[in-house]
């Protein structure tokens, strides 16, 4: 009876089915130039970090006294040298490795912490949720840096300490976002549909809740990277992060960098540029991902393009309201 | 994408006309065009004329249009809750228009606002005028929207699915209200709806739209008693009716409405049409005059009566 | 007392949603969404549930499936009380009762393919063995609701509204249930698509001897598909009888008003009908009026209606009504 004709079947849009990540990349480059630049710089950071020992012309702590405070010399010292004669390019390259490790490590811990706290909190609700949320309210009252400084003062400086501190505290801070995402899914009808079918609770969590909050997770991870790198730099700048002689970008900005700022400005310039461009890139990338992963902004919204019509109506309503004024 | 293509209809002074069609058939877009509210980009009115009281609305300046909008043509939308400002009292929102467009002072505007709310049947209007929108039910909010529309004595009210989100009982109340207002003030009304049922009683003429085009237009009685376009026939025959036997077989329009960016060749309706012939697949039918004011865009509209009779026998 | 041909019997069902306020989430009142509902649904029958928005019809539907923890009452499904069952026992019962949603898009997980959505119930209840049988079943379900099996790889947003509702129906049919609760299954759809879905639901009912509880606010649609109809107002059933009787001889003033508000798509007929226009709005279910909850809007109300709650009674031929004035 109501058989759909072949012609109509053809009229239903079929999107080319690419791998999710490939599709994401294509859309990133096509629609978000700034995000694409961010992505390229971030990739560059990772590559440089991974292959630091291959790329760096010298060791990160290789002292060449003859080159103390040397300005950049093309071919020999591309970016100049610091006050004890270490090649700045090599230190920046190894610094990338540190930034990368801190960012990835802290965000990995962050992810575990926030999922463990937030998913049960949002999914089961009740007393656990109530108590946990008050605890997080209290936690968020502390200024971040003061908290880090206190904990780092207790634990002592070092890369792993930085990673753990930034990861755990960031994870607790980000619990809210994940929890509200889980709660939103719980109110979705497909969640109720799954219950009505008789899907066991744990399966619902794995099959329906987690995949649907994946975009929120990815975005919060990407957005947090820049923050973590800044926090690490701040801690190192204040002397409680990664101790010298390790080439942390933040550390390079402080101490000798500051002392010789007038004589050898390149000592501060390069780590400053590296730091700000990487943080900026992470933020741009996160912004772009937020737009790209928002299902409301994704193409192929049914055959009516329902959204445009709705947006159209909204706009029209706004205009009439304006006209009335 | 052609949301509305080569559409013509007219409304006489004090008349009420329905524009009927399913979602995305272009009925709302056509109404927004009258108000020049099509957002640009992406929307653009490529051609045509919108004559209101002898003036082409597409040719006047934006400033002139502003005074037409709200003053002479008012629009009532489907979702009253999004059209009212939630943080302002109803009185304030009504007064705003009255003070601006009609130049009333505060005192007079306040009295007028109360009068308008009474007019649209809000109980205890003098007390409730200082309430906020959320304190009213959906039906009451829609009444307030109508009151706003009426505040400048417009000559035309465009109501875009004014009752779609409301219960049948409230729907009946509102349509009754709109009809009374028309009788009282002689305001012309364009009622945009997807439901052929609700308008039968209230409108003088019906325009049926499909895929951005007018497929049939005519006086209400003709459209319901002797529809000539297969789509209209389908729409009327496909809804269960309280006055018909319960187990009556419904007329099913197969398939889906086409995507406006990928319209089939020939008559847009032919893939879903029981009566399609070869000509329908190749040529686009024009509107054929079938009776006084009654037109249908179908090659077979002349023989439709016979076709239906034959079918009934079979 | 349940006879053999009764599939579901609802006794004195109450569903109150607590309203809380303040930091400590203190309870300040109840929204009495469903307040003492009784009815039964026979095997193979379709019971319509109608009423205005907020009358509790959707909540009643959800309660029958025990998607809510009900406040009071019994839900007998083939004689077993669902209200007393543990979640784990319920889960295996779910195969016999399914739900079709109003908004087909919202009820489909946007990250799952159409095939995955339809196949999920079979996997959950271990109804198929092996991939081949699973695939065949999914294909068969697609064909059953007049979709093409090749669409199984698509995601919900790639379907039109009507097609999504077909997916919802296919998912509900996957476990071969005895009871399907249809919650406003057509009200979000275009007129021409509504008819397709109604016709499909009727065909499937005949093919699989299904029992429906059909919840809708559109009285003409409900009449078309239902054998019996229950009219709800403010959390209570005010009238139940078979469809023809209800529409030919409505007894409760609320039913009469509802029916008179339904438009008929024929100006000649519609202009002849008398309309009973209800005044005012549905009162808040947090503070329902005393006596008969309908009395503030009723044109026939007397002192008795304002004071005492009318008991429902059978006025003959299974026509049940709760009104003092009948």
Provide a short characterization of the protein structure:
The complex is a heterotrimer of chains A (325), B (314) and C (326). With 325 residues, chain A is an all-alpha fold. Chain A has 15 helices and no strands.
Question: What does this protein structure show overall?
Answer:
- The complex is a heterotrimer of chains A (325), B (314) and C (326).
- With 325 residues, chain A is mainly α.
- Helix content of chain A is 72%, strand content 0%.
- Chain A has helices at residues 6-11, 20-31, 33-50, 52-55, 88-124, 126-141, 144-155, 159-173, 175-186, 189-197, 201-237, 249-253, 256-259, 266-293, 306-324.
- Chain B has 314 residues and is α/β, with parallel strands linked by helices.
- Chain B has helices spanning 27-34, 62-68, 80-83, 90-102, 106-119, 125-128, 138-150, 168-185, 196-199, 220-225, 230-238, 278-282, 304-313; strands spanning 16-20, 51-52, 55-56, 73-76, 156-160, 188-193, 205-210, 213-219, 288-291, 294-296.
- Chain C is an alpha/beta fold and 326 residues long.
- An 8-stranded mixed β-sheet of chain C has the order 6-7-8-3-9-10-12-11, with helices on both faces. Chain C has a 4-stranded antiparallel β-sheet with strand order 2-1-4-5.
- Chain C starts with 5 loop residues before the first strand and ends in a 5-residue tail after the last strand.
- The mean pLDDT of chain C is 89.
- Chains in contact: A-B, A-C, B-C.
- The A-B interface holds A 1-5, 7-8, 11, 13, 303-306, 308-309, 312-317, 319-321, 323-325 and B 23-24, 28-29, 32, 35, 37-39, 42-43, 66, 69-70, 75, 77-79, 82-83, 85, 96-97, 100, 148, 160, 252, 254-256, 258-259, 262, 264, 271.
Q: Write down the Rg of chain A.
A: 25 Å
What is the third-level CATH name, the topology of chain A? MetI-like fold
The biggest beta sheet of chain A reads: none
Mean of residue pLDDT values of chain A = 83
Shape of chain C: globular
Q: How many DSSP-defined strands of chain A? A: 0
Based on secondary structure, the structural category of chain A is mainly alpha
Query: What structural category arises from helix and sheet content of chain C?
Result: alpha/beta
What is the overall shape of chain A?
A: elongated
Uncertain segments of chain C are: none
Mind telling me which CATH architecture of chain A this is? Orthogonal Bundle
SSE string of chain A: HHHHHHHHHHHHHHH
């Amino acid at each position: 009876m109501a058989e759909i004709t072949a012609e109509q079947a053809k009229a239903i849009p079929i999107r080319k089915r690419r791998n999710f990540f490939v599709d994401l990349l294509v859309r990133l480059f096509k629609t978000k130039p700034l995000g694409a630049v961010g992505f390229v710089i971030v990739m560059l950071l990772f590559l440089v970090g991974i292959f630091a020992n291959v790329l760096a012309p010298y060791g990160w702590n290789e002292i060449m006294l003859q080159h103390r405070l040397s300005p950049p010399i093309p071919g020999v010292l591309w970016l100049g040298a610091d006050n004890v004669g270490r090649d700045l390019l090599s230190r920046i390259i190894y610094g990338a490795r540190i930034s990368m490790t801190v960012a990835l490590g802290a965000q990995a811990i962050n992810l575990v912490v926030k999922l463990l706290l937030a998913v049960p909190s949002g999914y089961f609700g009740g007393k656990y949720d109530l108590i946990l949320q008050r605890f997080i309210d209290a936690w968020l009252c502390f200024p971040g840096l003061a908290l880090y400084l206190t904990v780092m003062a207790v634990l002592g400086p070092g890369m792993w300490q930085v990673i753990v501190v930034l990861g755990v505290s960031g994870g607790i801070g980000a619990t809210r976002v994940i929890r509200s995402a889980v709660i939103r899914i719980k109110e979705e009808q497909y969640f109720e549909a799954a219950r009505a079918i008789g899907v066991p609770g744990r399966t619902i969590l794995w099959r329906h809740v987690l995949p649907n909050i994946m975009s929120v997770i990815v975005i919060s991870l990407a957005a947090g990277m820049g923050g973590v790198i800044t926090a690490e730099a701040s801690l190192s700048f204040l002397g409680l992060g990664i101790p010298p002689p390790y080439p942390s970008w933040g550390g390079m900005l402080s101490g000798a960098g500051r002392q010789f700022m007038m004589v050898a400005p390149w000592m501060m310039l390069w780590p400053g540029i590296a730091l700000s461009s990487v943080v900026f890139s992470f933020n741009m990338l996160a912004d772009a991902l937020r737009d790209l992963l928002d299902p409301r902004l994704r193409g192929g919204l049914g055959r009516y393009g329902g959204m445009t019509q709705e947006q159209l109506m909204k706009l029209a309503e706004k205009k009439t309201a304006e006209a009335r004024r | 994408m052609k949301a509305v293509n080569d559409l013509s209809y007219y409304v006489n002074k004090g008349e009420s006309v329905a524009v009927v069609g399913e979602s995305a058939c272009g009925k709302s877009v056509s109404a927004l065009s009258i108000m020049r509210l099509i957002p640009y980009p992406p929307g653009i009115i490529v051609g045509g004329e919108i004559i209101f009281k002898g003036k082409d609305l597409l040719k006047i300046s934006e400033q002139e249009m502003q005074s037409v909008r709200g003053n002479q043509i008012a629009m009532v939308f489907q979702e009253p809750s999004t059209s009212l400002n939630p943080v302002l009292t109803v009185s304030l929102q009504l007064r705003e228009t009255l003070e601006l467009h009609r130049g009333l002072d505060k005192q007079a505007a306040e009295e007028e606002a109360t009068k308008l709310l009474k007019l649209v049947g809000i109980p205890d209007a003098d007390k409730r005028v200082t309430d906020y929108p959320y304190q009213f039910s959906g039906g009451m909010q829609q009444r307030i929207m109508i009151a706003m529309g009426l505040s400048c004595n417009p000559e035309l009210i465009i109501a875009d699915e004014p009752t779609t989100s409301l219960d049948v009982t409230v729907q009946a109340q509102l349509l009754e209200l709109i009809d009374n207002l028309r009788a009282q003030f002689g305001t012309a009304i364009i009622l945009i709806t997807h439901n052929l049922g609700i308008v039968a009683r209230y409108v003088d003429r019906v325009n049926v739209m499909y895929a951005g085009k007018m497929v049939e237009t005519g006086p209400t009685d003709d459209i319901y008693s002797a529809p000539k376009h297969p789509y209209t026939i389908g729409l009327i025959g496909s809804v269960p009716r309280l006055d018909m036997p319960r187990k009556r077989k419904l007329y099913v329009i197969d398939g889906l409405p086409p995507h406006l960016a990928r319209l089939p060749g020939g008559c847009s309706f032919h893939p879903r049409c029981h009566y399609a012939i070869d000509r329908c697949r190749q040529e686009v039918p024009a509107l054929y005059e079938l009776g006084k004011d009654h037109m249908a865009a179908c090659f077979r509209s002349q023989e439709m009566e016979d076709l239906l009779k034959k079918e009934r026998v079979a | 007392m349940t006879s053999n041909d009764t599939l579901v019997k609802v006794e004195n069902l109450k569903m109150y949603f607590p309203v809380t306020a303040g930091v400590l989430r203190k309870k300040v009142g109840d929204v009495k969404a469903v307040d003492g509902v009784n009815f039964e649904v026979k095997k193979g029958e379709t019971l319509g549930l109608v009423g205005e928005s907020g009358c509790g019809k959707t909540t009643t539907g959800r309660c029958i499936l025990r998607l809510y923890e009900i406040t009071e009452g019994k839900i007998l499904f083939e004689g077993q009380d669902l209200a007393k069952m543990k979640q784990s026992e319920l889960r295996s019962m779910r195969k016999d009762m399914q739900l079709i949603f109003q908004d087909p898009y919202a009820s489909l997980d946007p990250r799952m393919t159409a095939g995955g959505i339809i196949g999920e119930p079979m996997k959950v209840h271990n109804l198929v063995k092996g991939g081949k049988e699973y695939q065949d079943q999914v294909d068969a379900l697609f064909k059953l609701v007049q979709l093409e099996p090749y669409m199984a790889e698509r995601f919900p947003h790639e379907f039109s509204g009507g097609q999504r509702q077909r997916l919802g129906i296919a998912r509900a049919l996957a476990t071969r249930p005895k009871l399907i609760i249809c919650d406003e299954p057509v009200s979000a759809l275009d007129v021409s698509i509504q008819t397709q879905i109604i016709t499909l639901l009727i065909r499937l009912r005949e093919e699989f001897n299904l029992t429906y509880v059909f919840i809708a606010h559109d009285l003409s649609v409900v009449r078309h598909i239902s054998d019996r109809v229950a009219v709800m107002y403010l959390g209570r059933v005010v009238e139940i009888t078979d469809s023809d009787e209800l529409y030919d001889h409505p007894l409760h003033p609320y039913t009469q008003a509802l029916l008179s508000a339904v438009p008929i798509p024929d100006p000649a007929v519609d202009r002849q009908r008398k309309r009973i226009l209800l005044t005012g709005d549905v009162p808040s279910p947090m503070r329902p009026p005393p006596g008969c909850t309908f009395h503030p809007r009723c044109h026939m109300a007397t002192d008795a209606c304002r004071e005492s709650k009318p008991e429902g009674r059978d006025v003959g031929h299974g026509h049940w009504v709760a009104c003092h004035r009948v």
